[in-house]
Amino acid sequence: MPLLIPGSDASDEELLSSGNPQRRIALVMGVPLEPSNQRMLDRAIDNDWVRFVDMTPAMVPGMNGTTMVRVFRITDAGLARLNEIRKRKVIDAVR
User: Which of 8, 29, 36, 60 would you label with 66, given CA atoms 20 to 30 Å apart?
Assistant: First the structure.
């Protein structure tokens, strides 16, 4: 995987495209994010691209039993940012 620079289109796209069809992202509690991923999440929260909505137990692949996850929802502003990035990529590919 290429190194993603927090604050770049690539890192924003990676985070904002990781949501499920309901625009939710779940992060396991108690497992620290890598510093670059934490900066990406902080940037998304600061820009109101994602909002914390819940903590809930979940079955997580690779972990024994049930664990707690933090659930974030991708906002309309986050979806607009993702669409902007994707539109720019199409325009750049045509040039």
Answer: 36
Residue 2 lies in a domain: no
CA dihedral 17, 39, 44, 62 (to 10 degrees): 40
DSSP 52: E
Domain that holds residue 85: 9-94
- 75 token code pair: 């906002």
* pTM metric for this prediction: 0.81
Q: What span, in angstroms and rounded, lies between the C-alpha atoms of 13 and 77?
A: 13
How many domains in the chain? 1
With H, G, I as helix, E, B as strand and everything else as coil, classify residue 64.
Answer: coil
Residue-level pLDDT, tens digit, the chain, 95 residues: 344 455 688 889 999 999 999 999 999 988 888 888 898 999 999 999 999 999 999 988 877 888 899 999 999 999 999 999 999 888 777 77
CATH number at residue 27: 1.10.10.10
